[in-house]
Amino acid sequence: MKKEQFQEKYSKAIDANYDALNPYIERGLTIFEIESVKQEILNCLMVNLYQASIALTNHLLERGLKLALIHNEVGIVPLPIEEWSTKFPEPNKRYGSLNLNKAIELCIKESLLLEDERKLLMDTIREQFRNGFSHADMTQILKDFPSTGTFHFGNFTNPGVITQIELPQTAIHVLQPLLQEGFAKQNALLYFKYVYKLLINIEKRLTTKFKQ
Questions:
Q1: What does the pLDDT look like over 83-141, one tens digit per residue?
Q2: Angstrom distance (rounded) from CA 101 to CA 127
């Protein structure tokens, strides 16, 4: 594809997506230091890079939960730089390498997550979005798709003949990318919106906690 074709393609995508994404461009998280990741997700969504958006939203979620636990310990007021070397290393060591399950459970314990949020994170997001895309696990990404699909094929030898065939679509590797692409297109923006709202709510809970 030539440079001009890329420019036209992405220009059309930006025109189509800008209004829906604009409310998230300027509005930032006030406590968590992950603004650059949020902006890159928006860049992906702006030009229809849906699978890349989901992968980055997974990062946003996991990093956000870890930052919630760190701030729950060190507070939400910016510290003088002279205190960084004494205040941050231990919480970073304690929470920085947590797996998603443990981060969710600790956030529940500290009242940073609600039970219904925990359930959705554990039962759906952890398996289908996070594990599915992080581990390239098609059984998770495509678990809600019908296992069998109907396909129509033609060939150049008999161009007027169309053959219909039933295939186990979710188990055939050459068909899985098409299904994954469709899943990502349908869910990437919704997933980002959910995670972003969740992190805003956690920030509000931290603010309320430290005002008490």
A1: 999 999 999 999 999 999 999 999 999 999 999 999 999 999 999 999 999 999 999 99
A2: 11
DSSP letters, 176-190, are HHHHHHHHHHHHHHH
User: Between the CA atoms of 74, 27, 185 and 20, what dihedral angle is there, to the nearest 10 degrees?
Assistant: 160
Residues 6+ apart with CB under 8 A from 45: 17, 21, 53, 188, 189, 192
Which tokens belong to 179?
């299904």
CA distance 141 to 38: 23
Q: What DSSP character marks residue 124?
A: I
pTM higher than 0.70, yes or no? yes
**Helix residue ranges, H only, the chain:** 3-26, 35-46, 50-74, 84-87, 89-95, 100-109, 115-120, 132-134, 138-141, 176-211
